[in-house]
Amino acid sequence: MLKVCVLASTSKGNSTYVRVGKESFLIDAGLSARKISKALREIGENVNDLRGIILTHEHHDHITGIRTLSREYHKKCWLTFDTYQKIRSKVGNIDAEFIAVGEEFHIGEEGVEIMPYEISHDASDPVAFLVKSPNGVPLVGYLNDCGRINPFLLDGFRKVKILQVESNYSFDLLLKSSYPFFLKERLLGKKGHFSNWEAAEFIASTEPQVAILSHISENCNTHEVALAEVESILAHYTGLSLPFLVMVPYNGRSVIIQNSI
Asked: Helices 196-206 & 223-235, crossing angle to 10 degrees?
């Protein structure tokens, strides 16, 4: 069984639960361990059953629960060495296993395969993740906090079953917003975040069965605008069968998707 649940995906906190067969883990832990534990109980899961956390980068909205999950719940954290160096002063000594871009690693006795991909973002060594079944079938693509598409992501994430991709802002709403110029420049830059347009372009290029639009800005986007813009752009790709689009709510309520592997 494949189960994906976005526990949270905002500038205040990001965490996604993934279960492949009997193995389960988190991608990022940007909520407190207490909130993560509560969210997992609400979807019928237990924090004690997690294998650990795979971490994309060091920003606060991705690491809040790492210290407690590691020290009190004894959960391993898979992350790059540079990312660990950035968070070490905040999380202390944790059970860490270092990973590297382009080097596949495995989780659990069933050997769930994870491939880290280099991405463009204003962090030390940020990565995206492709989760594959033990026999190599692409299951889940996770691409949050990314400023530009690169060909390696397009190749690796193609035909994935479930894609979580950020759809952070609408160009029009961002330009009209009260954000200072430097912040607009950061968001629009190559180390910023995906717009609705870039999310749609990535979806069109990779053709997932399900696309989860996440990390939607509360100030420069709305669910209605994101969905309308993404659907409009996808419709322009001739012959493309639109995937099932799922929106992550602002209030952090869970989105659960289950498929046979």
From this structure: 40
Choosing among 3.40.50.9100, 3.20.20.210, 2.102.10.10, 3.60.15.10, the CATH entry for 2-259 is 3.60.15.10
- Look up tokens 């952070």; give the residue: 168
Pairing of strands 162-166, 112-118: unpaired
CA 196 from chain center: how many Å?
16
Report d(CA 14, CA 25) in Å as an integer. 14
Per residue in 60-100, pLDDT (tens digit) is 888 999 999 999 999 999 999 999 999 999 998 899 999 99
CA separation for the pair 53, 194 (Å, rounded): 24
Two structure tokens written together for 77 = 């954290």
Q: With beta carbons less than 8 A apart as the criterion, state whether 43 and 66 touch.
A: no
Handedness of CA 90, 46, 244, 159 (dihedral sign): positive
pLDDT digits (tens, 9 = 90+) for 174-222: 888 888 888 787 777 777 788 999 999 999 999 999 999 998 888 899 8
Strand order in the sheet with 76-80: 96-99, 76-80, 52-54, 23-27, 13-20, 2-10, 255-259
CA separation for the pair 92, 17 (Å, rounded) = 24
Residue pair 164/156 in contact by the 8 Å Cβ criterion: no
**CA angle at residue 98 from 30 to 117, to 5 degrees?**
70
Question: Is residue 243 within 8 Å of residue 184, measured between CB atoms?
Answer: no
